[in-house]
């Protein structure tokens, strides 16, 4: 299986690359600087310079881009561009999503970021990632959006396991909703290989 990872040199992207390689997948990094590629195979592109010809031969394209601060407004146009270049192709798009757009109830009436006590500092990020998910839902491409737990720990341990959930925020028996970047990468590669949740948003936690 041939996959390409946009943002392959980032904290989550690099772990997805490592996990995919360890499972024998053929991985190409899409980076803005060749010196930062974690793989021997790479394309030097930013997301907006990617063209259909660049990605048409991959089975899966992973979007592990991170936009922060004023750049969070890039999530929607970046997603729209990826939809445009994947339209009509068989390449699946898997997205490293956010937890803020998970629903608080089974009726899907309220999202996590709409809570009164949700941190103001990350609300714009959650809103933009939620809008990107809406763009995917309205598209005709084959996508999967994977939301991490509410606490997404870059330095957390790798337990080698996770709980798969749906669109609602879920908790463990201790009332916690956590996962590490390393175990999220395992979940991502599981979905790449198994393709059990096409055109769906799923979530993962410990």
UniProtKB/TrEMBL annotation:
Source species, domain of life: Bacteria
A UniProt-annotated Pfam family: NAD_binding_10
Entry's transmembrane regions: none
InterPro entries, per database record: NAD(P)-bd_dom, NAD(P)-bd_dom_sf, Polyketide_Oxido-like
GO molecular function, one term: oxidoreductase activity, acting on the CH-NH group of donors, NAD or NADP as acceptor
Ranges where the NAD(P)-binding domain occurs: 7-191
Record PANTHER family: FLAVIN REDUCTASE (NADPH) (PTHR43355:SF2)
Protein name listed in UniProt: NAD(P)-binding domain-containing protein
Organism annotation: Companilactobacillus kimchii
């Amino acid at each position: 299986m041939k996959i390409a990872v946009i943002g392959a040199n980032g904290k989550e992207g690099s772990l997805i690359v490592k996990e995919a390689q360890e499972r024998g997948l053929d991985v190409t990094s899409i980076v803005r600087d060749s010196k930062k590629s974690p793989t021997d195979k790479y394309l030097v592109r930013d997301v907006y310079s990617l063209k259909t010809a660049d990605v048409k031969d991959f089975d899966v394209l992973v979007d592990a881009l991170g936009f922060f601060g004023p750049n969070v407004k890039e999530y929607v146009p970046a997603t729209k561009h990826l939809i445009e270049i994947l339209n009509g192709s068989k390449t699946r798009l898997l997205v490293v999503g956010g937890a803020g757009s998970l629903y608080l109830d089974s009726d899907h009436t309220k999202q996590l970021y709409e809570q009164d006590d949700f941190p103001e500092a990350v609300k714009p990020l959650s809103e933009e990632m939620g809008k990107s998910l809406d763009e995917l839902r309205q598209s005709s491409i084959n996508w999967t959006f994977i939301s991490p737990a509410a606490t997404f720990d870059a330095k957390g341990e790798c337990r080698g396991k996770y709980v798969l959930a749906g669109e609602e925020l879920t908790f463990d028996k201790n009332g916690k909703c956590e996962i590490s970047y390393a175990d999220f990468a395992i979940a991502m590669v599981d979905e790449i290989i198994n393709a059990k949740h096409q055109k769906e948003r799923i979530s993962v936690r410990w």
